[in-house]
Structure prediction request, 366 residues.
Amino acid sequence: MATIKRDYYEVLSVERTATGDEIKRAYRKKAIEFHPDRNPDNPEAEDSFKECSEAYTILSDADKRTRYDRLGHEGMGGPGAAGFDPVDLGSMAEILEGLFGDVIGGRRRRGRNARDLAYDLDISFVEAATGVEKDITVTRPAPCDTCSGSGAAAGTTPTTCEACRGRGTVRQQRGFFSTARPCTSCNGSGKKIDKPCKPCRGAGMVPKDVELTVRIPAGVENGAVRTVRGEGEQTAEGKGDLHVTVRIADHPLFTREGADIHCMVPISFPQAVLGAQVEVPTLEAKVKMKVPPGTQSGRTFRLRGKGIPVFGGAGKGDQLVQVMVEVPEKINRTQRKLIEELAAEMGIETHPQQSSFLEKLKALFD
Ligand SMILES: [Zn+2]
Ligand SMILES: [Zn+2]
Prediction:
C-alpha cells in the first residue's frame, strides 16, 4: 500500500464542502466501480476500494471529518487510531445493503455465492424525463444445463474439498484487512470434481445471455442505480441482484436542473424591439412563446409545468427559456446604411440604461 496518502476528498472526487449525502453517493459509485467482486484478481482495484472505504469512513463521521479538515492525515494518527476498522471485503450486496439500505432497501434471500452484477444503461435526455422501458441483454453466470450446476460429468458426483472442508472460502489477513478469499483448490465451490463436465469444464456455471426489461421511471437522475432483484448471478444457492446505473446523454438544446429544464433561444434585434412570437422546443412539442416588445437580452421566461416530473414526488418542473439577442456579425451595404440611419434617429433617450450609465460615469469622473 502506498505510504503517501491521497486527500480523502480527492479520493472520493468530492468538493471539500460536499454534504453527507454527496459523500455517500460518491462513495457508493466508487464502491461499485472498484468492488473486488467486479474486479477479480485486480489488486489495483482492491487498493482503490480500500482507499475509498477508508475515505468514506472518515468523511461520513462528523467528528472525524472535522478533525481531518483541521489536521489532515496527521490528525488521524494512523489507521488504527483513526478508528478506521478493518474492512471485510464482503460481497457487493453486503456493502450496498449495509451502507445504503435506504437506497437499495429491502431484505433479500440469496445464496452466499450468488453475486450481484452491475450494468450501465445509456438513455436519452427525453427518455429520462418521460420514463422508459428498456430491453437489455445481460450476460451472467448461471448453472450449466448439462450437469445441472454440479460440475461433475454424467454418472459422477463431486466430493467435499479438503482444503476448505467444503466451506468454499478461506480467511486471510492482508495488511489490516481481513478478507475472505475463495478457496483456490476448489474455486470456492467447496467440492472436488474428479471427472469434470465438458461444457462447463467442471465449473458448474456457464455465462448465459438473458433478456430483461428494465423500467426507468420518469424524472430519474443521471447516475441513479436501479436494482433488479434476483437478476444477478444465478447459483444453486441463490440469486444475486442486478444493479443498473442510468447514464443520461446530453441533449442538443436542453440542460437540466432537478425537475427544471433550461434552454436558450436566440432572437433578433428587431424581434427584441418590436416583440414577436418565437418557436420554443419543449419535451413534448414545439410551442409558440410571446416575446414582448422591449425584451432585453438574457431575460428568462418561465413555461410552467413544461419541465420534468418531480422524481418520487408530485407535479412537474418548469421550463426556463432564456432569450439572447443576436447581433449580426456580417451586414451588407444596404443594411449598414439603414442601421446608420436608425442610429442617427435613435437618440440616447431611447436607451434609458445607457443614459443612466453615462450619467453615473460622468458623476464619478467629472
Ligand atoms: Zn456442466
Ligand atoms: Zn475448497
Notes: The first strand starts at residue 117 and ends at 123. The first helix runs from residue 8 to 12.
